[in-house]
Design goal:
Layout lengths: L10 H27 L8 H18 L8 H21 L5 H25 L2
Helix pairs in contact: 1-4, 2-3, 2-4, 3-4
C-alpha cells in the first residue's frame, strides 16, 4: 500500500466514479432506446438546447471561478433553477429526442452532485 493513499479513496473520487458510471449507463440506455424507437434523427426542442447551453455555461463559470464573485444566494437560486429546468424539460422532450434529453438529465445530475459536494465541503 502506498503512503497517503487509502484503498477506498477520497469522497471526491468516489463521487466522480459514481457520476462516470451513471453517465455511461444512461448513455447506453439512451442509444439503445434511440435505435429501437428510430427517433435519433428528430431535432430536440429549442428548450432542451437552451437548457443544455445554460448548464454548460454554469459549468464553465464554476470552473473559471467567476461564480465565486457573485452573491451565494443568487448563485444557488440560478444553479438549482437550471438543474430543475433541465430535469423538467428533458422529461417532457424524452419522446421526441432521447439522446438530447439524456444528455440534459446527466448534466442536471452532475450539476446537482457538484452543488451538493460544494455544500458538504463548505459546511465542514
Amino acid at each position: 500500500m502506498m503512503d497517503g493513499v487509502e484503498l477506498i479513496g477520497s469522497l471526491t473520487m468516489n463521487i466522480a466514479l459514481i457520476l462516470i458510471c451513471t453517465f455511461f449507463i444512461a448513455s447506453i440506455i439512451a442509444i439503445l432506446s434511440s435505435i429501437k424507437k428510430n427517433n435519433i434523427r428528430n431535432k430536440p426542442s429549442s428548450a432542451v438546447v437552451i437548457v443544455i447551453a445554460l448548464q454548460v455555461l454554469v459549468f464553465i463559470l464554476f470552473f473559471a471561478n467567476i461564480l465565486a464573485n457573485l452573491q451565494e444566494e443568487v448563485v444557488s437560486i440560478i444553479w438549482w433553477g437550471i438543474v430543475l429546468a433541465g430535469f423538467i424539460v428533458s422529461i417532457k422532450d424524452f419522446k421526441n429526442n432521447s439522446m438530447a434529453s439524456t444528455l440534459c438529465i446527466l448534466l442536471s445530475i452532475c450539476l446537482a452532485a457538484l452543488k451538493l459536494l460544494l455544500f458538504a465541503i463548505t459546511s465542514m
